[in-house]
Amino acid sequence: MTDTLTRPKRAAGANAPAPSRRYKGFVERRPGKLTYLALTGLALFSAFPLYWSFVVGSHDNGILGEVPPPLGLGPNLFENLERAFGTIDFAKALANSFMVAGAITISVVLFSTLAGFAFAKLAFKGRNALLVMVIATMMVPTQLGIIPLYMLMAKIEWTGTMYAVIAPGLVTAFGVFFMTQYLGEAVPTELIEAARADGCTTLRIFWHVVLPVSKPAAAVLGMLTFMTAWNDFFWPLVVLTPEDPTVQVALSALASGYITDYSLSLTGTIIATVPLLIVFVALGKHIIGGIMQGAIKG
Amino acid sequence: MMKNLLYRLDVKGSPYLYIVPFFFLFAAFGIFPLAYTAWVSMHEWSLLAETHTFIGLQNYKDLFADEYFWNALRNTAQIWVLSTVPQLLMALVLAHVLNQRLRAPTFWRMTAVLPNITSVAAVAIIFGQIFGKDYGLVNWILETLGLGRIDWQAGTASSQIAISVMIIWRWTGYNALIYLAAMQAVSKDLYDAASLDGASSFQQLTRITVPAIRPTIIFTVIISTIGGMQVLAEPLLFGGASVTGGSDRQFQTLSLYLYEVAFSRFDFGYASTAAWAMFGIIVIVAAINYFLTSRLRRS
Predict the structure, then answer these.
(1) pTM higher than 0.90, yes or no?
(2) Is B50 helix (H, G, I), strand (E, B) or coil?
(3) CB contact, 8 Å: B60 with chain A?
(4) A169 and A65: one domain?
(5) CA distance readout (Å), B115 to A46, B265, B298
(6) What is the CATH number of the domain that holds A190?
(7) Are A29 and B100 a contacting pair at CB < 8 A?
(8) ipTM rounded to 2 decimals
């Protein structure tokens, strides 16, 4: 299992010299018009459902039943937004989601960098065994422990609060694995030995040597963690109420019921998706890099 | 002397301080609940009752005789096959296409992974509309083509196809990026030699790329299995937030059944039994995957 887990990472690490092949000559496959046509089709396929949520979210329900259905944007987006914010407290939901995802991101990045530093650069008894444990736990579907987790939260009276959502997300095995991999390559061991010889404590080495170097990987891990936390559905649904929800829980409350108000619920999906879309457009390149360095399906 | 001691303490002891937060929090909120699930599963344990009677393996006996459980397991397996097989095949082809000297490679990669940043709840709601009986886009297209409308939710096959489409849409690009990362590590010389021998692009994919990135393919199959066992939001929201997954439970997955037993019936003991059974299934499927593929690798 260890073997299969580490492979993708190794593969990603080896892609660094790739650009040089550009100058090597004739054998490179050159994409033709057909390739770009196929890719454009794919792009449309990827974007269409999101576009469709804007189409439905900007019309009122009556028009959606017409034949043919509208394929362009309509005039009712703001009216629908007002209706959505009036039906469910989306302002509170957005604030909750930002708080939850933000807290989880800071915690995961901090604890993963600390543990990654220890695993990658410090010698201690049991290091290898503990690292194998971390890698093994990446595969454990902890979602199946949801019932005792709920009982625990009920016992400490955290159900219905954001603490209950944040606590189980504070650390991830993937984060530790990711930072261990990165710091192992990025921090020269000689630098740490030299700092030690100068009398630096481990904490000072972490602060002055490791932390600055870890920034790019920490940023990527942070983005991936934020996205996962923002989109998390099952656990928040179980432990929160529609009165004090995250965005995803609010969304599910909006879509409940026998008769679905499509304009309203798809307007909800716009509210839930747009914040991440903005992040994605701004930082997509780094998110892609992060996924390709061996991200794990959440 | 004192300073020397402190130094040794720092070098030998402090590493543990750095890893303790991870292990403590992971044990408390990850491993402990999962392990405790086994204990709860051996009790008659309702959220509403004060006392919890130990009943040994009775819940497991009930579970194996529970037709709803087998129904959910069958649905989960069917949805897993319907979604994973096309998803991974398409991801392979897509990665192969992306693994060329493209203009604006980042842009194309971003379009591929765009569905994955969309939340699963949003995906389920949007596709629920697209597959709607009366106002759905798919039915409008079918009708225009003269094929007639389909009540996607009502049928077993049609509802499971709709749910599989949601999963395929959300994960194909993501898996393609994982494959692409692996493909970029394959020696270019192999492709050079193959194209000199006149191998087509498709032959290069099947003869060179697939064998070379097999560990990554195994990895995605195992990860998809774990993900497939946890499909919940799609069937829940496709059915208008109904926990039964359709009027005849035609698209109720295992996770949704677990959710129904635990948080609609509040039968925590029995739900824990279902959870522990799911854990067992994941372990078995992952093990089968692993042994099959490692035997393949040896031969």
Answers:
(1) no
(2) coil
(3) no
(4) no
(5) 6, 34, 37
(6) 1.10.3720.10
(7) yes
(8) 0.89
